[in-house]
TrEMBL record:
<keyword id="KW-0378">Hydrolase</keyword>
<protein>
    <submittedName>
        <fullName>Uncharacterized protein</fullName>
    </submittedName>
</protein>
<keyword id="KW-0326">Glycosidase</keyword>
<dbReference type="GO" id="GO:0016798">
    <property type="term" value="F:hydrolase activity, acting on glycosyl bonds"/>
</dbReference>
<dbReference type="InterPro" id="IPR017853">
    <property type="entry name" value="GH"/>
</dbReference>
<dbReference type="InterPro" id="IPR001360">
    <property type="entry name" value="Glyco_hydro_1"/>
</dbReference>
<dbReference type="Pfam" id="PF00232">
    <property type="entry name" value="Glyco_hydro_1"/>
</dbReference>
<comment type="similarity">
    <text>Belongs to the glycosyl hydrolase 1 family.</text>
</comment>
Amino acid sequence: MHIIIIISGKGESEIDHYSRKNPNWTADRSNGDIACDSYHQYKLDNQLVKFSISWPRILPTGDPTNVNQRGIDHYNHLIDDLLVNGLIPVVTIYHWDMPQKLMELGGWTNKIIADYYEAFARLLFSVYGNRVRWWVTLNEPQLVSVFGYGQGLSIRPVHPPGYNHTGVGDYLAIHNFLLSHARVYHMYHKDFKHQKAYLSRVYILKAGSILHPILSPNGDYPPVMRERVDKNSKKEGRIKSRLPHFSQDEIEFLKGTLLPHSN
């Protein structure tokens, strides 16, 4: 869950709006304003790998021309921290938090939502695709379709947006979920699948400086690290590099010295 809209430029999402409007939706009348506070606690949360990117934190109103840079920066920090800790990010693009402005257009019942969703996904691939190789397009679309657009008010509010249009709203929603998924899938394979992957400088200089000498076949520091530090040291007028050199014996001595890990 993500913290309230007033933090760092985040826009209101469907679940923000719905949980405030329907306080009895949860047993303890809590909402998503604070929840588990992953916005501030992401370093602790990074013991986990799978997370979603909040659509309204990146695009507060859903308008792809109105990008919240603070939202972009937050997920850059999160992803880099995952990599530094040796974890592989698996990112869900949509996990039940469409910008409220798009919900007011009909949400997933409006076919135009595929345009907005594809634009959002394209932005994520462009910004984070150099570090994220695993993407999940949609989280449980059938649940949202049935309980959000079909039976939302049958007994009590079940899921945002809480519509009660069984046999119409649920079918429209699942139909547009499927089309949106397909558009993003084909867009990714056409424009991003062959994007050259590289590890961020943060990962190389922090995690790589430790892991590369131990795990890589050739040992020693990462080549890009060696080249960069040697070059900068020379520019600074130093006699030798700020990054010490291993002897060949030391390289061989270090290689493969990873202790078994158990929890």
